[in-house]
Predict the 3D structure of the following.
Amino acid sequence: MRLSVIGCGYLGAVHAAAMASIGHEVVGIDVDERKIASLAAGEAPFFEPGLSEILSEGIASGRLSFSTDFAAAAGAAVHFVGVGTPQVKGGYAADLTYVNAAVDALLPHLSEGDIVAGKSTVPVGTAASLAPRVSATGATLVWNPEFLREGFAVQDTVDPDRLVAGVPAGDEGERATQVLREVYHPSIAKGTPFIVTDYATAELVKVSANAFLATKISFINAMAEIAEVAGADVTMLADAIGHDARIGRRFLGAGIGFGGGCLPKDIRAFSARAEELGRGESVAFLREVDEINMRRRERAVQLVQDGLGGELFGKKVTVLGAAFKPYSDDIRDSPGLDVAVRLHGLGASVTLTDPEAIENARRQHPHLTYVADRDEALTGADAVILVTEWDEYRRELSPEHAASLTAGRVVVDGRNAFDPAAWRAAGWTYYGMGRP
Ligand code: UGA
């Protein structure tokens, strides 16, 4: 099928390349000329495992192209809209400027019977408000939220765990459903659940999934806070409750909390939208989820300070990681980067290292010191804090080797990713998050 993808950020670029990889003819469109030039040359503008490969394959096959011209969308049967919906400046709500601009720019190029499939994460009610503009061209709007995780985006797009489509009522909705079934045929044929709903449900599925995941992380981080005063170990607690299949161990990783371009802003936008709908109290707990999450960053800073005898001023602290999670170079709302900035603010001499995110981090925080080589970054440090659990640190850094490089032996494990016994045996004073 011929498809267009409007917006070539994390979501759109991966979606375009993945759709080409399953056999569709795809054009990716974005107003950012640099991004389009890079994608058209087969180079991923950000780090995402497997993306470069499917980009090059798609371009070589002739099925994948990129353009800054919205006219290139004409002739596609389905137009995916995957632009960003960041947090508004000075508020909690989602900024829909890019969604509105993308839909408006697309309208003149739509034909009778086209499908416009919104993929961006939007406040409930957005699709219903956009639908009349799309319908006026003879096209149909559907809302088809995306659940990909950065770091696994290609795999999640090619082989998702579920597909959700919010469609209008009646024949129009049925026809749109059939078209989407064709788009996603390889997944559906494999048995991937395909859930067809109304617009509002599809929009809510997306935000409630992220709200649930954020809540799960903050729940375990709240238990970490209790464990800290009670002398318990939150990682053993998580293992034990995680064996209950109703609870499950995934997303019970206590540490410095969640960040990234989705969870933080999505729970805030959800709160804001619920307030607008007069049901703010229904998701009032999300404020608490946010607060617990932010408190863990302070706790991590406190642990470094405690480890250094209460004084950060003039101390050398090496921060392992900058990305908001491993397998990504994304630093949006990165808890680890925030911890580094706070340490710097308290007078520590901070050196950051990360296998992928240094350039992005440097652009945002040029005043911090960045060292690409892990061992060089560790050399002479008074304290070390792990904030992103890359394999380079979690698996490949032995406590003995680290001790041979640093000046001090204080380690704060912001992701509970190290083996405390091994680090202590190598002479380190080990601090976990919610561990004795
Ligand atoms: C999240 C969701 O997991 C995806 O399903 C969703 O599609 C995506 O947002 C989105 O809305 O686009 P992502 O932002 O890539 O995906 O990252 P996650 O894997 O959810 O991790 C988010 C944060 O939570 C990271 O900072 C991670 O370190 C942290 N985390 C995760 C924990 O602190 N503990 C855990 O146990 C798990």
